[in-house]
What does this fold into?
Amino acid sequence: MGYAEVRDDMLHGLGRLTDQQLGKRRQQILVQIKAAGVHLNGPTVMLVEGDSAACADVCAGFVRFLDAAAPLA
It folds into this structure.
């Protein structure tokens, strides 16, 4: 979920953690972002080269997992 949180930061927070993310679920959100390997400078997301490729790899792996788990039609 870390990449989904980063996506929300970029889209809704203009590169910063949103007020909603800094609310009740703050610690959980920070753990998820850290687990994705994305760095923060305070509330600001610090994307570096390779972050989008890593996100794509995770997404592709998840799709492969779903495909393998789906019953055959």
Observations:
- The chain has three helices and two strands.
- The longest strand covers residues 39-41.
